[in-house]
Amino acid sequence: MKLRTKLWLLLVLSAAMSMVLFGYTSVWIGKAANKGYALFQLNPLAQSIVDSIQEQPKLEIDVLQRTLDRAHADHPALRFVWLDDRGHSVYDTAGLNPTFTFSDLAMLMQNMPKSYLTADHISIITPATKGGQSYFLLLSVPASEMKQGEMYFLIRTLKSLLTLVVPLILSFSIPFLLALWFFSAVNKRIRKLNKALNQLNIQDHSPVAELIDSSKDELGQLTQHYNSMAHRIRNQFAQIQQFENKRKLLLSNLSHDLRTPLTTMLGYAEMIRTGNYQDQQELQARAKIILQRCRYMDKLLDQMLDISRQDADGLAIHPEDHNVSELVRKIAAEYILILDGDELLFDVEIPDEDIYLSIDAPLMERALRNLLDNAIRYGKDGQYLGIRLTADERSVAVIVKDKGKGIPPEHQAQIFERFYRVDSGRKGEGLGIGLAIVKDIAEAHQGSIEMNSTPNVETVFRITLPRNISTL
Length: 472
Ligand code: ADP
Known about the structure:
Elements: H1 3-33, H2 39-54, H3 61-74, E1 79-84, E2 89-92, H4 102-117, E3 121-130, E4 133-142, H5 158-199, H6 218-273, H7 280-313, E5 320-323, H8 324-338, E6 345-349, E7 356-359, H9 361-379, E8 384-391, E9 395-402, H10 409-412, H11 434-444, E10 448-454, E11 458-466
Parallel strand pairs: 6-8
Antiparallel strand pairs: 1-2, 1-4, 3-4, 5-7, 8-9, 9-11, 10-11
Bound molecules: adenosine-5'-diphosphate (ADP).
């Protein structure tokens, strides 16, 4: 059932129920809390006394006295006076036997409605005839013995019924109509939100249509939340898609990057097996190439492992006190050997004194190797490779510099992102995660990495590590 139908049913039912409830409770509470005589009870009482006296064959004083005394005994709060047609009291249950003039009686009759509301006593005069003579029964009640409130619905015609029922219905329906109006407005806003949620398509690339609801109530807040949620979902979906594209590219690069060296290696290994080489020097050269390719493949597989490991649980480091000067010296020596024979100036600057720092040495070595490999791979044209270690009392920095083609300014902001490569179409050069790994390693040591590159002039990568890594 729709909310709107539910509300209508609820309103109609509750209006009917409240009217019935109103009638019943007012009668019940009136009966319980409103004790006393009602005017409509007194008239029949007086008339019944008059009737019983009139039924007597003769008006005898003792019969009259007995009748009135019995009535008084039944209703001790009431006073009964039997008057003759000249206003003389024949019998008074109060024993005062007053005499009333015609004008006294007329005034009592005339003032009755008024005295009902204001006077101390209320008097009702009921005429009687007996033996051709006129009498009056005067019934008098103290106002305190009357009910404190009375309501009479005297419904004789449909018109008089309408005069009562129409205002009653109107007064009952106004709150319901207001509630209905309020609910309809709320319902409209909910439907708008519902429709928007239903139509939200995360794959749609057009901008998200903003829902406008300027009110500050819960629905207004919900609409705001919807707007920001829709934006967030779209952005996240776009990011996921981007990531997915990068993953696909990564896989195709990886399969290419693994196959190419493998083909070369197979060829050279076959050549060595069949002895198809001229001299020992050629054999050495081929073996060196096979070794290089193996190293490259080993590195690729390492990086693949890094990707899956970091996806699973981030980068965990195990720092210990290490001589950083020694570590950098060792790596520099290795690279001097690797670059042996290349036309390249290798500039190494390491302070003589030992610099001790709490680091995860294998990870740090890896970071440094990534930077050096990149400098050789992308910056060889500059024929310069620099490695420098500096330290002051607060930090230690390792700097790798080359003078090759560098990184164009428009790529510099994203260069540390995973899978980002300047020339993403070109295969056989890497997966685009080397620098992201260096950054992760530096940050895991509470340090940082910076890059400055002026294409074809110089490209500098600088890892800065704090001296005191307290909370590792
Ligand atoms: P990969 O080398 O596997 O592609 P990296 O994260 O190590 O991934 O490097 C990202 C990109 O940054 C490289 O593709 C390359 O274009 C660029 N780059 C990195 N180092 C240098 C450098 N020294 N000179 C020029 N370009 C560089």
